[in-house]
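Usage

Read records sequentially. Each one opens with the input sequence:
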Amino acid sequence: MSTSQLPDPKDRPARLTVGVVGAGRVGPALAASLQLAGHRPVAVSGVSDASRKRAAQLLPDVPLVPPAEVLQRADLVLLTVPDDTLPGLVEGLAETGAVRPGQLLVHTSGRYGAKVLDPALRAGALPLALHPAMTFTGTPVDVQRLAGCSFGVTAPDELRMAAEALVIEMGGEPEWIAEERRPLYHAALALGANHLVTLVAQSMELLREAGVEAPDRMLGPLLGAALDNALRSGDAALTGPVARGDAGTVAAHVAELRKHAPQTVAGYLAMARATADRALAHGLLKPELAEDLLGVLATGTNGAEGDAR
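and closes with the structure output:
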């Protein structure tokens, strides 16, 4: 369903009051996007100075109150706290009677589905797990990035329409994830997005060490093309010395990394092994070249050198 099909906010009478428990990078952005859809943020909780500043920037004039008071004021409550904090928070809110029957309780954890909200469900709340597959900066740009963003959604069947409507109102696209598949879903996103940041940061550091004055400018077009090719073609987009079976070049890489950035060697070898396995399985790496390459990767030695290209 396209967001262009949605009626104008002023034409939709059933608007909700919105509260945020945990003013990290995610909660204020989601509340701000719901505000654009016609809902009304009424309360936010935050402890650190950074969270209070984020709330003030993205949700100006919305009062900062304790979590229990957020639930008292809001029809829809966003629980945007770290994964490890979420179960205890839900239990505590339910035990203290803060949860109201009929209240929409939404968490944004990728790891958990709707069952983590069972204590609130028993208190009469309506549980939704809406995880935006997006990185957040804690600035207004996050609201714009939600346009077209996929959300991993898990909810009881009877709340499916409500979950989809909220995601679409935030500019996103709902993608249903089974309760038992949430950890796998989240691991997949972390593998792609979180590790990508580490890889790019390491690459930039090494380019600076090699004398490149603007590593971001050098990497931008290359990584953009690599990402586009990977999304379009999957393993067929593999290229470089590992996919070609250039064992000497890989050995030279390992030798240079040991000399200039030994902390990156383990990661390089692990990713090279994974790349070699995929290239071999998909017929990109010739078996007769794989033996020497896998030998270099197994030992991590700096054997024969080759020309990187």
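Summary fields computed downstream for this record:
- The two ends are 45 Å apart (CA to CA).
- Residues 226 and 237 are 8 Å apart (CA to CA).
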